[in-house]
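Case study 2.
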Amino acid sequence: MAKGRIVKALSGFYYVENEDGIFQCRGRGNFRNRKITPLVGDWVTFEAENRTDGYVLAIDERKNELVRPPIANIDQAILVFSVKEPDFSTHLLDKFLVHIEANEIETIICLTKKDLGTQEDVTEKVKVYEMAGYQVLYTSMEDEESVQTLTPVLSGKVSVFAGQSGVGKSTLLNVLKPELKLETNAISKSLGRGKHTTRHVELIKLTQENGYVADTPGFSSLDFREIEADTLSHQYPEMAERINDCKFRGCTHINEPGCAVKRAVEEGDIAQFRYDSYKQFLEEIQSIKRRY
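Prediction:
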């Protein structure tokens, strides 16, 4: 028996890596009966007679896991958004941030296509995220040096790349590790977004940095079933730090008097667009709970 980490899952096979290489394994027979699914990123106990004929016997406890994409034990999420083409979307970024925060995963915001110019309103909005405590990096596909600013950030960690479609996630990874030759697609002009190019979840080893990057098919469904209405504001750092100052415990920050969050919005300490996305997500969560 040996220990290793699942670096790829494809067609019912799990590819487990340790210091001796990669072993193709199947899941243990009783996993299905116990409704256990091994995930990419899992640390496992396995046995293998050779490189192509092994079995995953047990899965270590996970520190976190995502449902879509199905992946475990993530150290950080790199949320990749473009300055232009497609336009920077704070609403979509907030949606990603809420889901990542709910899974207690560190987040770094990576803005691509800075060569296309940064409009003043984008710069102002980005400052809001920096004030909330998020690290923001600007990159350009035309400037390899700017992409290399990601190198120390990825060092020694398991990172998941996610974000808008068509912003250059695969292109970024190709710059960081040219031998990957990941498929990239140009933006569809009529749709204003890229086509999905990634088909399965896989951990890609970045040798110089001793880190792994998960290239995933993206967060195919960012619905709010996993998030409760009363914890949504906890996923906004600038709201979370004011919750205890609200007059009522369990304040939803909508109609209650003496709400510290609403006061901060009125005084300009919380950005209106962040509060607007909070209200919209809260409505979505409440409507889901009513349906179910």
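Residues 66-215 form a domain with the Rossmann fold fold (CATH 3.40.50.300).
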